[in-house]
């Protein structure tokens, strides 16, 4: 059932082949990681995904290890949906290689691309995207981490927090205020290698869905100006372009979680015996299952519409926001329903639907909280108001 939507006209035969191949690989390779801590398991997943060639879809530039000249948004979504259906940490590992190196793919120099992207695509280097701060999350343009020019270098001072892959990344794409103008136009982007003096892991953070995360501190951290991505003051625009590429894929990851939850709910409902029958005999159970399936399909249509439009070269600011909002909010509802159908089993630590309940929660916040997506959608609607016929 998970591959029914692969026949939709949004996808090509190449996309269908990718979905089928990755599904088979995931079924064979994404096994229980017992005995490994989260950091080690994440490193292992990145290495395995790279060795199998899947990380090429998260990197742009065939000359730099990527699958094509540009990132194929539909392929990115198929990959994240499939991996998320099997293993949340595998989806995380894949997504962070793309998000962490996305600014380099989009705006890096050829030398920067040659140095970093092949290692990202092969799984030999872990990437991280360092934008958020304690006072600059949804309002990223309010960041205060600063970088001052000093000869042929920049000196970074300040902090970043909620940084995924923090503590295990080999390099960080860091956005810091360089002061060319007020607000968003005074921010630049830098590649900071993890072993750069002055970069410290100030704190490891443990989210409810386990994955590597940290607070970073920069103290007189000197980086050559050749590590700046793009021109001075262009950093915020680069960050937004990067997020535009990957926001639709967050919706796809939510779809993967939701499909897993629906499959678990169907299996439980058709085998759980009660009152002389099984749980799925009851109309309330059937209504819940019907709502779950409909919610998933509606979100999937929005997700792959946005991905298809972006691959055709269209701006998808509104469509990507709709997809992320519908898919993440819908997946939360689907997973909650799956927990309810499982009864007591659904709240036992380590049960698949209990794990999904923790996995989905962050997706409603990161890369733009639901409330931010609502503001974006409304802004785009008001930009060109619909006419009454």
What labels would you give this structure?
four-stranded antiparallel β-sheet, single chain, 10 helices, 389 residues
SSE inventory with pairings:
Blueprint: H1 13-29, H2 38-51, H3 73-86, H4 88-107, H5 110-122, E1 127-130, E2 146-150, E3 153-164, E4 171-177, E5 187-193, E6 199-204, E7 213-224, E8 228-229, H6 235-271, E9 273-274, E10 277-278, H7 283-311, H8 317-342, H9 352-361, H10 370-383
Parallel strand pairs: 1-4
Antiparallel strand pairs: 2-3, 3-7, 4-5, 5-8, 6-7, 9-10
Helix pairs in contact: 1-3, 2-4, 3-4, 3-6, 4-5, 4-6, 6-7, 6-8, 6-9, 7-8, 8-9, 8-10
Produce a short descriptive summary.
With 389 residues, the chain is an alpha+beta fold. The chain is 50% helix and 15% strand. Strands 1-4-5-8 form a 4-stranded mixed beta sheet. It has a 4-stranded antiparallel beta sheet with strand order 2-3-7-6, with no helix packed on it. A two-stranded antiparallel sheet has the order 9-10.
General description of the model:
The structure is a single chain. The chain is 50% helix and 15% strand. It is of the alpha+beta class. The longest helix has 37 residues, at 235-271. It is built from ten helices and ten strands. Helix 1 packs parallel to helix 3, helix 3 (73-86) packs across helix 6 and helix 8 (317-342) packs antiparallel against helix 9 (352-361). It has helices spanning 13-29, 38-51, 73-86, 88-107, 110-122, 235-271, 283-311, 317-342, 352-361, 370-383, and strands at residues 127-130, 146-150, 153-164, 171-177, 187-193, 199-204, 213-224, 228-229, 273-274, 277-278. The strands form three sheets. It has a four-stranded mixed sheet with strand order 1-4-5-8. Strands 2-3-7-6 form a four-stranded antiparallel sheet, with no helix packed on it. A two-stranded antiparallel ribbon has the order 9-10.
């Amino acid at each position: 059932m998970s591959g029914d939507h692969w026949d939709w006209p949004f996808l090509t035969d190449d996309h269908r082949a990718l979905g089928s191949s990755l599904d088979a690989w995931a079924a064979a390779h994404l096994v229980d990681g017992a005995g490994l801590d989260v950091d080690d398991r994440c490193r292992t997943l990145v290495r395995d995904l790279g060795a199998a060639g899947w990380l090429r879809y998260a990197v742009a530039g065939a000359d730099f290890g990527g699958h094509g000249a540009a990132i194929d948004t539909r392929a990115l979504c198929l990959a994240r949906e499939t991996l998320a259906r099997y293993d949340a940490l595998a989806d995380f590992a894949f997504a962070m290689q793309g998000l962490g190196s996305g600014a380099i793919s989009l705006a890096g120099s050829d030398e920067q691309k040659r140095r970093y992207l092949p290692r990202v695509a092969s799984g030999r280097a872990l990437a991280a995207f360092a934008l958020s701060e304690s006072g600059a999350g949804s309002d990223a343009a309010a960041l205060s981490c600063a970088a001052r020019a000093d000869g042929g270098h920049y000196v970074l001072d300040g902090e970043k927090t909620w940084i995924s892959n923090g503590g295990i990344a080999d390099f960080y794409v860091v956005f810091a205020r360089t002061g060319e103008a007020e607000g968003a136009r005074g921010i630049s982007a830098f590649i900071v290698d993890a072993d750069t003096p002055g970069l410290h892991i100030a704190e490891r953070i443990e989210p409810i869905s386990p994955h590597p995360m940290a607070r970073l501190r920069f103290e007189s951290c000197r980086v050559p100006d050749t590590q700046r991505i793009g021109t001075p003051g262009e950093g915020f625009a680069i960050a937004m372009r990067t997020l535009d590429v990957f926001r639709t894929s967050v919706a796809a990851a939510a779809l993967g979680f939701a499909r897993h939850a629906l499959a678990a709910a169907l299996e439980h409902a058709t085998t759980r015996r009660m009152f002389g029958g099984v749980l799925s005999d009851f109309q309330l159970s059937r209504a819940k299952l019907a709502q779950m399936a409909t919610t998933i399909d509606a979100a999937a249509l929005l997700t792959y519409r946005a991905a298809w439009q972006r691959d055709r070269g269209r701006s998808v600011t509104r469509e990507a926001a709709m997809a992320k909002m519908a898919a993440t909010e819908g997946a939360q509802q689907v997973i909650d329903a799956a927990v309810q159908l499982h009864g007591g089993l659904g709240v036992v630590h380590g049960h698949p639907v209990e794990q999904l309940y923790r996995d989905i929660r962050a997706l409603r916040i990161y890369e733009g909280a639901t409330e931010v997506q609502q503001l974006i959608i409304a802004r785009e609607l008001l930009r060109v108001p619909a006419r009454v016929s």
